[in-house]
Design brief:
Elements (H helix, E strand, L loop, with lengths): L2 E11 L8 E17 L3 E8 L13 H12 L6 E7 L10 H16 L10 H12 L7 H6 L2 E7 L2 E6 L6 E7 L5 H6 L7 H19 L3 H7 L6 H4 L6 H10 L4 E4 L6 E5 L2 H16 L5 E7 L6 E3 L2
Parallel strand pairs: 3-4
Antiparallel strand pairs: 1-2, 1-11, 2-4, 2-5, 5-6, 7-9, 7-10, 8-9
Helix pairs in contact: 1-2, 1-3, 2-3, 6-7, 9-10
The chain binds L-homoserine (HSE).
């Protein structure tokens, strides 16, 4: 019997101006999965720890389960038997890429267990299937960075074209998750289907500016470019105290602050660990002032993506 345990990182999708096309991975939090081979063919979820019983136990409806199933179909190995134990180590519906981390952990783990028949980049479409069952849309801005590590641009979905971008050697991310839940499907439903030419021009300038700022690196350009005139103004209403928490981040030295993925978590970028910690405290205070509890996570950009853990 073979067994493998894998960690996959949480991610910040959109990164202000890059709806559905930008995302980066963080060191903390993340999900863990354990796969164990079995004599009985088929993929089974035998346990999920940390979800309060809310995630589907049926493999075809679970993000990790479906990612592994579609992978095994692709490599023509549906004869394999697999028992999955998923350790959820981040809140559900949080905007931290929870469904993506599970899907990535699953598909990375099975590929490692089988001796890497596919290169990492080829695992992406299977992890995206996990996103499809989780929220009805196979977006790659969470699974891309969780799988590849670092900051990822999805240049095109059809054909899939994903690019990993250099980031400054020191760049810290503060994540604050207020204890409310936002369903990604709902957060997508409220978006407008049409965007004005004026806002498209502003957004394109910021998209280009953020990439140039990250690659140069130029912190001031990063800061000026972390602006979203299309999605944030619509979704901010789903997060009580959004404006106060954002102001707290900026007042305490953040380069920029916006919604992480579809929310309700918010992220802020900064140049050093001390500032990142201070930002977290200030943002949490903004939420606690109105009685909303929250969790804060501070970490650097995760450059590695998923990794095998000792069994
Ligand atoms: N880009 C997606 C969205 C990420 O904002 O809806 C959701 O996790």
């Amino acid at each position: 019997m073979d067994s493998i345990r894998v960690f996959a990182p949480a991610t910040v999708a959109n990164v202000a101006c890059g709806f559905d096309i930008f995302g980066f991975a963080v060191d903390n939090p993340g999900d863990q999965i354990t796969l164990t081979t079995s004599d009985e063919p088929g993929v089974r979820i035998v346990d999920i720890i940390g979800d309060g019983g809310r995630l589907p136990r049926e493999a075809a409806r679970n993000t990790a389960g479906i990612a592994i199933q579609t992978y095994l179909q692709h490599i023509d190995r549906t004869d394999i038997g697999l028992d999955i134990v998923l350790h959820k180590q981040m809140p559900l519906g949080s905007g931290l890429g929870s469904s993506a981390a599970s899907a990535v952990a699953g598909v990375f783990a099975i590929n490692e267990l089988l001796g890497r028949p596919l290169p990492i980049l080829k695992l992406l479409p299977f992890a995206m299937e996990g996103e499809r069952v989780a929220c009805g849309s196979a977006h790659a801005d969470n699974v891309g960075p969780s799988l590849l590590g670092g900051f990822v641009v999805v240049r095109s979905y059809n054909p899939l074209d994903v690019i990993k971008i250099e980031t400054p050697a020191t760049l810290f991310c503060t994540l604050v998750h207020p204890d409310i839940e936002v369903n990604t499907k709902d957060a997508r439903f409220i978006l407008k289907n049409e965007v004005s030419l004026k806002n498209t021009i502003i957004q394109m300038g910021n998209v280009a500016g953020l990439i140039a700022g990250l690659m140069t690196p130029d912190y001031s350009l990063i800061s000026r470019s972390l602006v979203d005139v299309i999605i944030e103004p619509v979704r901010a209403i789903l997060i009580p105290e959004f404006n106060e928490a954002k102001k707290a981040a900026i007042d305490n030295g953040a380069l920029g602050c916006s919604i992480s993925g579809s929310g309700p978590s918010m992220f802020a970028l900064s140049r050093d660990a001390q500032t990142a910690e201070k930002i977290g405290v200030a943002m949490q205070q903004a939420f606690s002032a109105v009685g909303i509890t929250s969790e804060a996570y501070v970490s650097e950009i995760n450059r590695q993506g998923p990794r095998v853990l000792p069994n």
